[in-house]
């Protein structure tokens, strides 16, 4: 079985639905973005939203993807850092219970938290305090982390530490792993554009991006042109287009996969679930159109729930559908 190792910010997601977007303006949070905030700002947001219903989940973009991959039968591992606190214990336990092999370092610094404010139109805005997650260091990266793995999946949100993300990708690349980069929020891409383009040029085989991220990465405002440019950096380029579907390009092959019809409640984790479905099919050596189809299936269903979680019946139904791919 092909093993996939993921690396990213180990965060506990705190999910809340808001009635309108006025609160986002009050908190100076651009809708749909991911903003890094300090501990004081994070506590201020929690105070202002204390009357809202909250849902906790083991989070971080790469962790979401790895956990879903484990749930649908892939061999996985995850590398990150959490605090020696209640949230950190919850995080490690949740990953292990999800079937993920963990390489998680614990720090005296509190576990990072990602506050997700979900608008009525299902868009989500993150205010993230990295906490212990940002203490992951380049010297923590050694070749033995990648032992037994064939694919290395990393989130662009780690780009706050250029040396760390470059060493992790270079080490994976030198160990002959297929390297996968999922670009971060459009504002993160804009702020680190030259560096991300350098990484893509030197070390990345597969790139995932949503539409806004692709525009930020390429400077284009046309989806097909953006796809063309991103594909020049890597072997496989995937553009996630939300409710419109997705595009996949590899060499001269281009495929459009329409979105499935669902009752969207919350888009949190949709991109992460898409990547999990796509990569699972990729490890099975399915064609790229089937990879996109499975990614779309998972992304669609998670939007029917609050937070990056599915109920047991939905997982059962999805795994039945996955079995059918074996006969296509």
Features:
328 residues; 9-stranded mixed β-sheet; 12 helices; 14 strands; 39% helix; globular
Polypeptide structure, described:
The chain has one domain (3-10, 60-108, 135-325): UDP-N-acetylmuramoyl-L-alanine:D-glutamate ligase. It starts with a strand and ends with a helix. It has helices spanning 22-26, 39-48, 61-71, 86-97, 162-174, 186-191, 193-203, 211-218, 223-231, 270-283, 288-302, 312-325, and strands at residues 3-7, 11-17, 34-36, 55-59, 75-83, 101-107, 112-118, 124-129, 151-155, 178-182, 206-210, 236-240, 246-250, 253-257. Helix content is 39%, strand content 24%. By secondary structure, the chain is α/β, with parallel strands linked by helices. β12 (236-240) and β13 (246-250) form a beta hairpin.
For the record, the count of structural domains works out to 1
The gross shape turns out to be: globular
What is the mean pLDDT? 92
**Class per helix and strand makeup:** alpha/beta
| Major beta sheet summary | 9 strands, mixed
Gyration radius, in Å: 18 Å
Strands of the largest sheet, in order across it?
6-5-1-9-10-11-12-13-14
Fourth CATH level, the homologous superfamily = Ribokinase
User: The CATH topology is what?
Assistant: UDP-N-acetylmuramoyl-L-alanine:D-glutamate ligase
Which range does the strand content fall in?
Answer: 15-25%
Termini separation (Å)?
Answer: 20 Å
The topology string of helices and strands comes to EEHEHEHEHEEEEHEHHEHHEEEHHH
Question: How many DSSP-defined strands?
Answer: 14
CATH class: Alpha Beta
